[in-house]
């Protein structure tokens, strides 16, 4: 995969590490329909590239993603707004289904769609200046009701959704939305170090582990153990020996 430019994204590559950069800095990377299409296309490219082992998702300029592009919504009929939301769901799911490790790198605001994009990543590293908000209820719409409870728990998810309050990176880490918080000037180095460490792992083992974790949480403990055993069998079949 060579470096690729979309209308709203930059897709770059250094060794086994690819970076998706949300690239609408003049509107704080607000998510419009074109960005959704570009995210779907970029995710498809990455998923099909076996030489990519880690994917970073970040924002250009002073924000990760300030949320849904509200100007784009003006004048749309209810059916058109619903179709636009479905398009957004498809984009978030495309990120979630990338088989490689996907790390969200969040600085500045991550509101609404920004929280969903970050939540679709495997985990998140944030700068201390990052802020988060789920503004859907305050705007009279339903949204973010599925990923947030799975990350932060039902009671905290209800609080954040019902109040639409802004919260900082330290609280995001405390409730499980963010794994680590760094000074803004240290974020890039920390992200690069994390990505390089993960890129050293056997790619098939990492993909199987990711699949086991995700699918296992959606079934019983016994079903999850069966998924893990099947993945161990697949790994052994393809490598001939287990790597421990």
What does this entry look like structurally?
The protein has 244 residues and is an alpha/beta fold. The chain folds into two domains: 4-199, 2-enoyl-CoA Hydratase, Chain A, domain 1 (Alpha-Beta Complex), CATH 3.90.226; 203-239, no CATH class. 48% of the residues lie in helices and 17% in strands. The chain has ten helices and ten strands. It has a seven-stranded mixed sheet with strand order 1-2-3-4-5-7-10, with helices on both faces. α1 (33-47) runs parallel beside α3 and α9 (203-216) runs antiparallel to α10.
State the domain count.
2
The CATH architecture assignment of the largest domain turns out to be: Alpha-Beta Complex
Residue windows where pLDDT falls under 50 for at least 5 positions:
none
What do we call the CATH topology of the largest domain? Answer: 2-enoyl-CoA Hydratase, Chain A, domain 1
- What about the largest sheet? 7 strands, mixed
Mean pLDDT: 94
The helix/strand class is alpha/beta
Q: Order the strands across the largest sheet as they lie in space.
A: 1-2-3-4-5-7-10
Strand share of the residues?
Answer: 15-25%
Name the shape in a single word: globular
Rounded to the nearest angstrom, the radius of gyration is 18 Å
SSE order: EEEHEHHEEHEEHHEHEHHH
Count of runs of 4 or more consecutive helical residues? 10
CATH superfamily of the largest domain: 2-enoyl-CoA Hydratase, Chain A, domain 1
Number of strands: 10
CATH C-level class of the largest domain is Alpha Beta
Distance between the termini: 31 Å
Helix content: 40-55%
